[in-house]
Amino acid sequence: MPIDFDKSVIREQTCSVKFDARRAVFGKEDVIPLWVADMDFPAPEAVTRALETRARHPIYGYTLFPDSLYQSMIDWYRDRHGWTIEREWILMAPGVVPSLHAACLAFSEPGEGVIIQPPVYPPFFSSVKRTDRTVIENPLDCVDGRYTMDFEHLEQCAARDDARLLVLCSPHNPVGRVWTDEELRAVLDIARRHGLVVLSDEIHCDLVYPDKPTHCMLARLAEAGDALVTAVAPSKTFNMPGLGLSALVIPDPDRRRAMKEVFDSLHMGQCNPFSITGFEAGYRHGGPWLDELMPYLQQNRDYVADFLAQRIPEVTMTVPEGTYLLWLDCRGLTPDDKALKQFFVQDAGIGMNPGATFGDNGRGFMRMNIGCPRPLLEQALERIEAAVIRRFR
Predict the structure, then answer these.
(1) Residues 264-292: pLDDT tens digits?
(2) Phi, psi (rounded to 5 degrees) for 107
(3) pLDDT digits (tens, 9 = 90+) for 313-337
(4) Which of the listed CATH numbers 3.90.1150.10, 3.40.50.720, 3.40.50.150, 1.10.260.40 matches domain 17-44+288-392?
(5) Which fold would CATH assign to domain 59-285?
């Protein structure tokens, strides 16, 4: 039976950041939350069944990472991405964001440089700053609504004496690019020439739209000796980020040891039994659910694109190739970021992520999460349209 993604699930009073933190984040509860990056769809039924089975055992003690967990991940990336992973390359991690911090600590010294490509997920900035490293910005170019990397400038950034690490977002959050093989090879070439470690955050690798190019794992293009760390997780794929478990794939033993030493120094090696159970169940049994999800998300994406073009032309969007996130150019309403956020929250009753939090070149933009039932998305867009008519027309 097809999955009914249109069905609404009540998330209030479940300690949901997305719903129950609305007053703290937006100043009021009466906003449709289209912000923090989790979806409003139930996780695959197989994941829920596995968690229920584990919960029936009444002892929730310290838990090992079983061989079957590693094999589920190896099988998934072999079958879905054509990527062969060796068991010893895998280092389990408490999440991709902690891994960003750990990479800064493992591969650079205080004051040294870490290259990021804004507009980009805010923890890319904070992981560098909070570990007392220096942010080196290689801003993405945008031509006719399509974002690309500025490789000439990236080369200049990599050539700096203090540059040690490049953090790549692939697919990119928030602009939704799925980088081509040619672009990824160019990244690797620059990293080799300048001795950079590359951490490739590929947490959205499974969320590529059916009408767009397939995602290529950066590691599939790598050569022996490349300084590459790949961060992956089932959390975005199967909508279970609250379970908080990810993995790093690091072929080089010295770099793998460096990351493990950071994790060990912070006592980050343990995980709860439900995270382990959900991780394995997603990779083993979640494929059919994902195959139904992506066409639905594509319909959501196209619905928003058509609605904006026909009814709110003041707002344009970058059509994403991957992720369930939209990057909305709202400068046609107002270039003032404070006024823009106030408009969406107070006038339209919509909670989104302000683009300015993704870097200076995100000013005037908003990030919209479309991982929700279409009726809710329709309601949100109608609210925005009505507010635009009242305020700007």
Answers:
(1) 998 887 789 999 999 999 999 999 999 99
(2) -120, 10
(3) 999 999 999 999 999 999 999 989 9
(4) 3.90.1150.10
(5) Aspartate Aminotransferase; domain 2 (3.40.640)
